[in-house]
């Protein structure tokens, strides 16, 4: 099938990439409202259900760096279309799953396909739109797609689960994926790539992926041996990166304190916030007895507020007040959100008690762009692409780790309260409230990490400015 290279095909190519990214983002959130139905039908354990989310996020987060490198070596178009194909096939597998193990395996496969498509999608757009103004518009569409995916995931997950059953939330990807493959094969630019001889750190990718899998498995199942094995494998990954000829993650990147600090803050922030999304959906159905559709609509204002602020007000506020102030203000709103959730009754009034809290989610729309700006400012020009991919990886791993840790804490607290004689609803509420409180602590830790990062930058900048000023004041000898 010939590739269309005319200028007029670029909007269609942009729409094709955006549609694929929309599927990827949507599938990260669409399951959150459907989880209670999935848990009942497939008989997941109290802690095991989180793997429906974690299987997807962990595969996505751990394969992004490798997928991006493969795009450089084999061509971005080829990896993008292969990723969409894997994702679409895995969606059919998930929609037809009849057991917990089959669904989790399908979710891992979905995450692998999503990693392939999303890792190279941004690079395709940068190639298609070289002019700064056109590129800015294309990247705006790209960013809006992420916000739209989060919104649609919440709403579609509830509506489809309640009307057609949870299987439909995966089968809806089939016509979209087929359309992306057919159109993408015609309109996306062909690239030869550097070739496999340019180098690929397959061993490093295997060690990193296995280490993350073992670590999260140990956290979810409270298995110290798996947790320890994960740390050992990640240590071997670090050694490999220090000695590999073409490492996936050059050590110099993590030695940059600005980059490392911002990534750690991102890990803590998204771990708390994605867990808020998952656990609140669980709370409204398990404790407040809301239906799946009502739960999805109840969460909609939070997603809309995040999207509106991130695309609108955040850039203006950062330009006026600076990245750190906007970041800390956004994190303050998010801490207030989780603290107030710990006091929510078992049957809340939506307009008076829940809707105001959902609107506080706008803090994420302020905090995330500011944190990205802080971290990217510490990257050298030659490492900007790698650091961008690193942020995405930390974000995905933070989402998976946050759900694993906080859902396990909630389940353990619920079990303890049940043994103490509490009713089922009260025990569940107690578990979720503990998880929200710990999430608020993670956000405070993110704020402290970012504050420390900013102080180190300021302390490092001042001496440099003083030395530069001193050199300028040295008189010239005649």
Features:
Growth Hormone, Chain: A; mainly alpha; 478 residues; disordered N terminus; 82% helix
Task: Describe the protein.
- This is MFS transporter.
- Helix 1 runs parallel beside helix 5, helix 5 packs antiparallel against helix 12 and helix 8 (202-221) runs antiparallel to helix 9 (224-243).
- The protein has 3 domains: 1-189, MFS general substrate transporter like domains (Growth Hormone, Chain: A, Up-down Bundle); 202-249; 255-459, Growth Hormone, Chain: A, CATH 1.20.1250.20.
- 82% of the residues lie in helices and 0% in strands.
- By secondary structure, the protein is mainly α.
- The protein has 18 helices and no strands.
Concise summary:
The chain has helices spanning 10-42, 50-74, 76-95, 100-128, 132-164, 168-171, 173-187, 202-221, 224-243, 251-255, 257-286, 292-311, 313-321, 323-341, 350-359, 362-376, 384-419, 424-473. With 478 residues, it is an all-alpha fold. Mean pLDDT is 79; it is low at 1-6 and 462-478.
Return the structural class. Answer: mainly alpha
- State the fourth-level CATH superfamily of the largest domain: MFS general substrate transporter like domains
Write down the overall mean pLDDT.
79
**How many structural domains?**
3
Radius of gyration: 23 Å
Number of helical elements:
18
- Biggest sheet overview: none
Which topology of the largest domain does CATH recognise?
Growth Hormone, Chain: A
How far apart the termini lie comes to: 73 Å
